[in-house]
Amino acid sequence: MKHELALNGGKKVVSDELERFQHPIIDPSIASVVLNQLHTSISLYDNGGIYSDLESGLKEVFKLDNVLTTNSGTTALFSLFYGFDFSLGDNVIVPSYTFFATAAPLIALGVQLRFADCLTDNGNVDPQNIRKKIDANTKGIIITHMWGIPCDMEDILKIGIEYGIPVLEDASHAHLAEYDGKIIGSFSDGAAWSLQGKKNLTAGEGGMLTSRDKRVMERAVIAGHFNKRAKQEVFEPDLIPFAITGSGYNFRMHPLGASIAYHQLNELKNQTKERREVAAFIASQIDQIEGLSNPRIPNSSKPAWYAYPILFDNNAFSNVSINEFVRAINAEGAIEADIPGSTGSLGRFELFNNPQKINRMYSGTEYVSPSPSDFKNAEFFSSKMFKIPTWYGTKRFKFAEAYLEAIKKVAKYYKK
Predict the structure, then answer these.
(1) What's the pTM value of the predicted model, to 2 decimals?
(2) How does DSSP assign 303-347, residue by residue?
(3) Of 37, 89, 237, 351, whose CB is crowded by the most CB atoms within 10 A?
(4) Which tens digit of pLDDT belongs to each residue from 217-237?
(5) How far apart are CA 142 and CA 238, in angstroms?
(6) Long-range contacts of residues 267-271, Cβ cutoff 8 Å, at least 24 apart
(7) Beta bridge partners of 310
């Protein structure tokens, strides 16, 4: 029974204590800062207090000139797109393979989406496919650094410069990822991050955005902030009349969430270092398993490793699908091994095929639904990838070794 799969009644290889990793690590220090903020203020209307502390810290750690925090990564992306004034009649290029919230805020703005397919070696957008989707109405290029692996930034930024189109980054997976020695999000036209509960830097729920363009940032403030904060940060003559009301939305981060994120900032660099150590160990072990392979890492880049994607070749295994393979790994106790659900090929979502059914902004205009060919690589990559966590902390290698033992056991069992 030792080598029998747990799925079939054998003994699982991952102990109970290593099945699930708690992130963020909830210890007395994080509880203390939340309690302190609870007794200080649970509602702030301006850019002071914990907001000022957090945004100043984010600027320093992420090497940013400007930062605006929001209540989610989705509202951060919406605010960034609103800041660039994307609107009805504009074409914006988005990745075919990403989390749906990368593109969904553009639907709220009435934008025509153009989907650029991904590369099959790491899931990031294909620069050459971006080039093919550009036309006279293209107003922006959106990219996502999937699973914390930087996109091929040099190629993408060259395209943006060549056509005079801003390149904006969904960096929700890529906290402190680097490309050519620069932190992702610090050197493009704009970027947004999620600070949701599972992200490397988390507020529980939250987001942040940046742009070096002063007007973009002021419009981003107007998108989801108002009155006290807007009156302190909005100076463009045509925007000042909207300072008191903003656009009508409230995107403020909750102060308790801000205190959680601020507390973690001092640990983020070390956490990233330890995740990279674990990722290097995982890569070395996956290299030894026939039928599994590692994603390509662009030259001169350092991933943030929000998760570790593993590529599955069903031709190397006997009569087993990727779903069955991962289910067997889960049964061994590696319960956080996962095939992404809401992240993947966007072509399967009605929102991106027929948004006019729920959004009257498209009434009287012809939304051009994407072609299945726009998602060919995205569908392929989605069908061959599963992911495992990247751990940090004192037990990080124990978690990694346990999960890899489960993967090796299942791979050996199903090997042709």
Answers:
(1) 0.97
(2) ---SSEEEEE-GGGBSS--HHHHHHHHHHTT-TT-B--SSEEEGG
(3) 37
(4) 999 999 999 999 999 999 999
(5) 27
(6) 268/61, 268/175, 268/176, 268/200, 268/201, 269/61, 269/176, 270/392, 271/200, 271/392
(7) 386
